[in-house]
Specification:
With 377 residues, this protein is mostly beta strands. The chain has three domains: 95 residues, Immunoglobulins (Immunoglobulin-like, Sandwich), CATH 2.60.40; 93 residues, Immunoglobulins (Immunoglobulin-like, Sandwich); 117 residues, Sandwich (Immunoglobulin-like). It contains two helices and 30 strands. A hairpin with a 2-residue loop joins strand 9 and strand 10. The longest helix is centred in the first third of the chain and has 17 residues. It is found in: Membrane. One of its GO terms (biological process) is cartilage development. InterPro entries: FGFRL, Ig-like_dom, Ig-like_dom_sf, Ig-like_fold, Ig_I-set, Ig_sub, Ig_sub2, Ig_V-set. This is Fibroblast growth factor receptor-like 1.
Length: 377
């Protein structure tokens, strides 16, 4: 048990060092991927999401703007990516792997194409030549093949969501190659920007200096030639930093909760932060029960179970919300739960207790028959 509030604070301060204070930054792509993936009808396809970060990012998959969840029976969500079994024609579309932690986020985009080999074999003449590569779609008058534009410095484009303080600068890069030589235009939301100064080489880089709140926008580079076009979008958020001691605070939640045995209890954690925070749920593990959890940290002689944490939702008032649900509550689920919020400026936490009521014994009312006097007639 903690002897006082200071000891709890000291333990959690050390725990923050383990979880987030030594964070290297936002999520990043660990290896390049092919944005266009072809799957055969009825087969299995895997879309990798090779992202890493410290703290480890939360990963969300989206198809055509809809979140992919466990209810999609043929889709399997895993840390390494998304696996789709028995591919159907309706599985074709635009997929995105979105990874985020308290320091930023990144998105890996895929276009999934579903082909039917049997139908293709029936419709294609036996002597039909091999289809041309998707990269080469024609020729210019000199006989040189046309090549669709492609980004040549993808590693410099991994961070697509940027949070910058007022007065800072940021450089957005979209260097690409192709044949004929592609041209690039830059857009701020729906408005085309004037070409950057400094020659053709500078066209591939957009530099924003002395950022102000009105510079927050989506910046898109459109690269095109006769063979096709590609684009990349950066989201720039200009942050007005307030007093550094108030960059992260927790509201009145979580609060102490009572649940009946077998019921469902829930805690919520509301964090006010200048930038998107990392929210982590912990449960204090009592002595002798350390082996019941696969992810347990020992800090200052105390053990904490690191609980699975879902997506952190932003709210219109500038706060961030996360919820923890305990389904089919058992006796061992009772105890202290801690919501820990951290960002680049510091951390804050709030604890609450869960009480699990024992199963109540059924109450039977015993009725005894009593003699009723006979009527006098």
């Amino acid at each position: 048990m903690f002897h006082n509030a200071e000891s709890l604070t000291a333990c959690l301060a050390a725990l923050v060092l383990v979880l987030s204070c030594e964070a290297k930054g936002p999520p990043r792509v660990s290896r390049p991927v092919e944005e266009r993936v072809t799957a055969r009808l009825g087969r299995t396809v895997r879309l990798p999401c090779p992202v890493e970060g410290d703290p480890p990012p939360l990963v969300l998959w989206v198809k055509d703007g809809r979140n992919v969840h466990q209810g999609w029976s043929r889709h399997r969500l895993a840390r390494q990516g998304l696996r789709i079994k028995e591919v159907e024609t309706g599985d074709a579309g635009a997929y995105a792997c979105r990874a985020a932690n308290g320091f930023g986020s990144i998105t890996i985009n895929y276009t999934l194409v579903v082909v039917n080999d049997s139908a293709a074999g029936q419709n294609r003449p036996p002597s039909a030549p091999t289809e041309p590569s998707t990269e080469r779609v024609g020729q210019d008058p000199t006989g040189q093949p046309w090549v669709k534009p492609r980004f040549t410095q993808a590693t410099k484009m991994r961070r697509r969501v940027l949070e910058q303080p007022v007065g800072s600068s940021v450089r957005l890069t979209c260097l690409a190659s192709g044949s004929p030589a592609p041209a690039v235009t830059w857009w701020k939301d729906e408005q085309r920007l004037a070409p950057p100064r400094g020659g053709a080489r500078r066209q591939w880089t957009l530099t924003l200096r002395n950022l102000q709140p009105q510079d927050s926008a989506r910046y898109t580079c459109l690269v095109a030639n006769s063979a096709g076009h590609i684009n990349a979008t950066y989201k720039v958020d200009v942050i007005v930093l307030r007093n550094s001691f108030r960059t992260l605070t927790l509201g009145t939640h979580p609060v102490n909760t009572t649940v009946e045995f077998g019921g469902t209890a829930s805690f919520q954690c509301k964090v006010h932060s200048d930038v998107k925070p990392v929210i982590q749920w912990l449960k204090r593990v009592e002595a002798g029960a350390e082996g019941r959890s696969n992810a347990t940290l020992e800090v200052g002689g105390q053990h904490f179970a690191v609980l699975p944490t879902g997506e952190v939702w932003s709210r219109p008032d500038g706060s961030y919300l996360n919820k923890l649900a305990i389904a089919k509550a058992r006796d061992e689920d009772g105890g202290m739960y801690i919501c820990l919020g951290a960002n680049t400026m510091g951390y804050s936490f709030r604890s609450a207790y869960l009480t699990v009521l024992p199963v109540s014994e059924p109450c039977f009312l015993s009725l005894r028959s009593t003699a009723t006097p006979s009527p006098p007639w």
